[in-house]
Design goal:
Elements lengths: L3 H15 L28 E10 L7 E11 L9 E13 L4 E15 L4 E15 L32 E16 L6 E9 L5 E5 L2 E4 L3 E11 L4 E12 L2 E15 L6 E11 L5 E10 L2 E10 L4 H4 L2 E12 L14
Antiparallel strand pairs: 1-2, 1-16, 2-3, 3-4, 4-5, 5-6, 6-7, 7-10, 8-9, 10-11, 11-12, 12-13, 13-14, 14-15, 15-16
Amino acid sequence: MNRKLPLVLILVFFYMLSNAQDVHFTQFYNAPANINPALTGVFVGDTRYAANFRNQWRKVPVNYMTFAGTYDTKLKPNLIKFGALAVGGHFHYDIAGDSRLYNTQLSGIASLSKTLTAKDKLSAGLGLGVSVVGFDYGQLKFNSQFDGEVYTPDLASGEEVANANRNSVYADMNIGVNWNHRVKKSRSFFNLGLAALHFNAPKVNFYTNEKESLDTRLNLFINGAVQLTRRFDVRGRTLIQSKGPEKEFIVGLAGRFYLDPHLSKETAIELGLNHRFFDLGDSWSPTLEFHHKAITVGLSYDINISDFNVATQNRGGFELAIIYRTARIPELKPKDCKIF
C-alpha cells in the first residue's frame, strides 16, 4: 500500500476543515447571483440565462462537482415610481466526497435600481430561498467493518455519525447593494458591490439536539472594463469574502480583443488570469472567453499551488460558464398615412 496515502488523507481532511466554504466559482463575475442579489438585472439587455459548472480536485478522494443555473429579467420601465425592478430565480447543486455530501438551493432573487445620473445606477437586492444539505452514510466505510480479511458492510460502524440525520433543511436570506457606472458611447464600465449572504444566520443540524448557525458570508465585489481602442478592452475583477474565520481573495486581469466591434454583430475573444489566495497563495487560473452577439462562453482551470498540492499534484478545477442574453424589440407606434 502506498505509504503516502495516510498523509494525503490527513491533509485532505484538515484542508477541508480549515477552508470550509460555500459554493464558489473562479469565474465569479460570470455567476453574479452567487455573490450578490443586487446584480440581478445588471447587464446589457433585458433577460439573462446563465449556467455554471465546476469540477474540482478530481485527483483526491474529496472531489467537488458544482452546478448553478440563473434566470433574471428586467421588468417594464416605470412599473414602479421609485426605480426599475428586476426579478429572477437561482438554483445550485454541490456534491463532494465519498459521503456524497451535497448542498441544494432554490431561491428567488430581485433588485430595485435607482438612476442617480445619466451614467450611474444604484441597486439594492434581496434573495430568499430554501436549502437542503445532506450526505449518504451508506457510502462510508470504517475500520470496524473489516473482519480482518474482508469488508463486511453489515457490521456496525461504531461511529456516532450513524445516529445523525441524513439531511437538514433551512431558509436562507441574502442581501446586497451595487453601484454601476457606465461611460456613454463606450464599452467602459465599473461595478462596486457589497453583500451579506446567509444574512439570517440559518440553523443547520444533523443531530436532533445540536444546531449550528451558518456564518454570514460578507463580500466586496469589484469589476470593470476600460476601452482602450476600438477593438481592445482591459478588464479587471476582484472578490474579497469573509465567512466566520475563513477568508478568500480573488483578483483577475484580462484583455478582450474584438474581432467585430459593431454592437449588433459583436464578436470577441478574451484571455485572462485569476489568482485565488487565502494566506500566501492557493491557485492560478488561466481563463478564456468567447463572445458572439448575445452569447458568452467562459472556460477556466485552477492550477493549485497551496500545500494541498501534495494531494492534487497542482491539478485544481475545470470550470465552464455559459450566458445568453436577449433584448426586447422596441414597440413602434403606428403612424397615420394620409393620402391626398
